Amino acid sequence: MTDRFKPEEALQHRIGIEKQITAISTYFINLPPEETDRGINWALKTIGEFAGDDRSYLYLFTDQGTRIENTHEWCAEGIASIIDNVKGLSVDIFPWWMDQLRHFESIHIPRISDLPPEAAAEKLIFEQDGVRSVLSVPVTYGGALVGFIGFDSIRAEKRWAEADIRLLKMVGEIISAALERKRLEETRRATLAYMSAMQQISEIIEQTNDVEEMITRVIERIRQIFNADRAWLFIPAIRTPPPGASPSRAPFRNIPAHSPEM
C-alpha cells in the first residue's frame, strides 16, 4: 500500500492543498455560470494531478435522489474512463455506499478487498473497474445531499491523508455552489424568455384583427417557446342543425400552426 508523508512532507502537502483550494475557489468566483461544466472538469484534473491519483470524479443524484449519474470525470494517462458506465442507475444498487453518504460520512477504502460483507455489490463493481482504493465525500447544498466527489486509485493501493479528505470536501462545496449558481442563472434566463414570449403573444392578440391569423401566429409563437417541431390547436366545430333539431357538437377541427415535411 502506498505510504503517505513524513512530517516535513506532510506540512508541505497541507500548504499545497491550501494553495489548491484558494486557486480553485478564485477560479469559480470569476467563472461565468454557462462555463460551469468546463470549470468542474478543470477542478477534477487539478486535484487529481495534485493528489497523484488515477481518477477523480463527480456523481450527482437525479430523479429526486433515486438515480445517480457520473457527470464529470478526469483520468490520468493510461487510465480508462468509466463515465459512460454510470448513467441513470438506481441508487438501490449501492445500498451500503448510499447509507454512508446519507449520514454525510466520508468513504475511505484503502483496500477494496477489506470492504464489509454488506458492501458486496459495491466491491464487485470496484473489482470490475479495476479499482484498488477509493476516497469519496458527500457533496451537499443547503444541508441536502446532491452527490459525491472522489478519487480512485487503480495502479496501487493507497491510503489518503486527512488533508486529502479536506481537499475533496472543500472542492465539493465549491462545485456545489457553482452548480447552484448555474441552476439559478438558467432559471432566471428561462423566466425572462417566458415573460418575453408571453408579452409577444399578448401583442399579437391585441394587434391582430383577423381571428384565423391571430390563432396561427399565437400557435406558431408557442411552438417556438417549446422548441417543438409541430404545434396544433383543436377547436370544436359546431354544426348548424336542421330546423327543429337540437344543436350537436361536431368532431374537433385542427389547425396546424407549423407542419414540416415528414
Characterization of the model:
The protein has 262 residues and is an alpha+beta fold. It has six helices and eight strands; from the N terminus they run H-H-E-E-E-H-E-H-E-E-H-H-E-E. The longest helix is centred in the last third of the chain and has 46 residues. It has two domains: 175 residues, Beta-Lactamase (2-Layer Sandwich), CATH 3.30.450.40; 72 residues, no CATH class. It starts with 6 loop residues before the first helix and ends with a strand. Helix 5 runs antiparallel to helix 6. Helices cover 45% and strands 24% of the residues. The strands form two sheets. Strands 3-2-1-6-5-4 form a six-stranded antiparallel sheet, with helices on both faces. Strands 7-8 form a two-stranded antiparallel sheet. It is elongated. The C terminus is likely disordered. Strand 1 and strand 2 form a beta hairpin.
